[in-house]
Design a protein that fits this description.
This protein is α+β, with helices and mostly antiparallel strands and 105 residues long. The chain has one domain. It has helices at 27-48, 53-104; strands at 8-14, 17-23. Strand 1 (8-14) and strand 2 form a beta hairpin. The N and C termini lie far apart (54 Å).
Length: 105
């Protein structure tokens, strides 16, 4: 884990432009994120056939935000499913403990 007080500065290349990025994240993480954004921008540019950097950037941001929203929705579904399972287990445990106390008493 990176020390949040230590800032790393790296130069990344996204959509043909170099950007200096300063952050507390591990440089390898920053590079992976930049590579992902670059790949998404290349994909969006290819699909939309637009070369206007600002339009490609906005469409890419929307695409990444959509992916994030889908993952958040899926995470919520998994949490709900997990909570349901835990609730069922607790109910069974309560019934089991209740019947064990009744039979002992």
């Amino acid at each position: 884990m990176s020390d949040p007080r230590v800032e790393n500065k790296v130069i990344v290349k996204i959509f043909g432009e170099e950007y200096p990025i300063t952050g507390a994240s591990d440089p390898a993480h920053i590079f992976r994120v930049a590579e992902y954004v670059d790949a998404k921008m290349q994909e969006v540019a290819r699909i939309s056939r637009s070369k206007a950097r600002d339009k490609v950037a906005i469409l890419t941001a929307l695409s990444i935000a959509s992916e994030l929203q889908e993952l958040c929705d899926r995470l919520r579904q998994l949490e709900d499913s997990q909570n349901t399972c835990v609730d069922k287990l607790l109910t069974r445990l309560d019934k089991t403990l209740s019947s064990a106390t009744t039979t002992q008493g």
